[in-house]
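This entry is passed on directly below:
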Amino acid sequence: MICEIQGGAAFSLVFLKLDCCLKRGKRGAGSITRGKSLKQMEMSKEEIIKQLRGVTAEFINSSSAIEVDTFFHQPKEKWSIAQNVNHLTISANATRLAFLLPKFIIRLYTGKPNRASRSYDELVNKYKLKLQQGGKAGGRYIPKTISPATGKENLLQAFATSMDKLINAIEKKTTDPQLDHFIAPHPLLGKITLRELCYFTIYHTIHHLAIINERLREQAV
């Protein structure tokens, strides 16, 4: 939703109250990289879309280079690389609903937010803390065992499609101010704004790419 995660309940209309008394500071310019500090930085909608496209491409390029046997290898009590990919697909498909639903329906179930959006770093730090406290995937976000017959290319294509649809929903269904004025429930993070949900999706993809690299190192031993 993890150490392998985005856990819990689906993004249904159990939207919770959040807030947004906004007085925006100047937005940071340029794209964000992992080596650059994002503390106190807010990404615009355009920057978010750029980052989502970038991490999606990096994830697919890295995963495409993995041998099929390694890709589907099932370690004990851990997710395979294939399962990590499938988990991200499930997550992106669920997340998309928060941007596709008519805004009046979201408002009906959430009311108005009650705080400003966190920065990228603040959101990521909160997520890491939840993981340290034992947070993990649950329910529909736990991928089933995946057979090699499923096909590596099919799994990667499904992930690419899910992210493309998510990005399209953000781009066409939500304005930049609306990213702060509406919220969605997250199984680990609780009440988060749509901007924070975008931040989470960026980091979530990076997080699982790191897990996949860990699997590769484990198999190389």
The longest strand covers residues 183-186. The first helix runs from residue 45 to 64.
